[in-house]
Amino acid sequence: MNFIRALLRLAVGAWLALVLCADRTAAASTKRQLEQLLDTENHTNNWAVLVCTSRFWFNYRHIANTLSMYRTVKRMGIPDSHIILMLADDVACNPRNCYPATVFDHPQKTTDLYGDNVEVDYRGYDVTVENFIRLLTGRVEPHTPRNKRLLTDDKSNIFIYMTGHGGEDFLKFQDSEEINSYDIADAMQQMWEKQRYREILFVIDTCQANTMFSKFYAPNVLSIGSSKKGENSYSHFHDRDIGVSVIDRFTYYNLKFFESVDMSSKHTMADLIGTYNTTLIHSTPGVRTDLFARKLEKTYLTDFFGAVQEVELTPEAFPIGQKQASI
Q1: Distance (Å, rounded) from C-alpha 128 to C-alpha 90?
Q2: In the prediction, which pLDDT does 43 show?
């Protein structure tokens, strides 16, 4: 009888050991799954900062450039809550505009860029060098509303587009002040140190645009400019009714490519850059990749222009709400 009791005690002990071991294994597996979900290398959100730095009616095309980019990123899925739109002037309401409350980027006037659903975050004299740098670095005043804040984190990809009048290593704001390449370079380094981005795509359309990213040193930044040092960037489509040019060539040919792209597209940055034709653009676009970790052939356009969320499938259901062993 004592022998049987001893065997039973051994059997129960072995069974308890197996149960505890299984619980630890399950707990460890759950912990690994949770860490994989939280520490995924894929980014989780996209943002766009679109900046027109020019005032006055004769700079109509710069406002159209920016609004065209705004329309494209919205069509690709980025919501207004993740778009910061800065327009230094409101040509839609200019007395010279023979089509009041509208902005067009083509003489055929098929698409009103201003439309009924444009949210301008920084307007008129709010578009300054100081506000732009504060926006990027997060050093805004405490009372600044959410729509004027770049609420990014270390999983955010940011598309920054700038257009206006510039020269070697500078871009004019409002014809009254300038931002230089060192200012933007230092701001991006601050962003990296404060974990405000994962990757940045910086695109600029201005004269001698490529010099504006020549001083960058922060990691994970891909830069594209419309013209090299010593070159101008040129306008496109002079509209006889409006009396001014309605878009710039570099921006126009970028947008033309994007018309064939949607949220599910597998087009890459290499595909976009491969379409650049100096004969059509009338200047020499530049691309700086030495700070960017990924290959352009492996970088999808939707990594910056879309809002498709990355979803990770696990082999087993994650036990949300169930009582878990101690992890």
Answers
A1: 15
A2: 80
Q: What is the DSSP letter of 157?
A: E
Contacts of 193 (CB under 8 A, 6+ apart): none
| Helix (H), strand (E) at residue 178 | strand 177-180
Q: How many CB atoms lie within 10 A of CB 75?
A: 15
- Phi and psi at 87, nearest 5°, equal -120, 120
Residue with tokens 């230089």: 180
The pair of structure tokens assigned to 50 is: 């679109």
274-298: b or e for each residue (b if 16 or more CB lie within 10 Å)? eebeeeebbbbbbbbbebbeeebee
- For position 25, what pLDDT does the model report? 53
Is the whole model's pTM more than 0.70, yes or no?
yes
- The residue among 254, 270, 273, 269 whose CA lies nearest residue 304 is 269
DSSP state of 88: S
Pairing of strands 122-123, 170-173: unpaired
Of 209, 236, 193, nearest to 106 by C-alpha is 236
User: Among all residues, which ones are annotated catalytic?
Assistant: 165, 207
- Both tokens of 9, joined, read 């005690």
CA dihedral 181, 183, 184, 189 (to 10 degrees): 120
Q: Could you tell me the two tokens for 43?
A: 């980014």
pLDDT along the chain (327 residues), means of 10: 57 56 53 46 87 94 96 93 93 92 92 88 95 97 94 96 96 94 97 97 97 97 97 92 94 93 90 96 96 95 78 65 51
CB 175 within 8 A of CB 125: no
CB atoms within 10 A of CB 195: 12
**CA–CA separation, 242 and 91 (whole Å):** 11
Q: What is the pLDDT of residue 307?
A: 73
Q: Which residues pair with 157 in a beta bridge?
A: 46, 199
DSSP strand pairing (45-52 vs 83-87): parallel
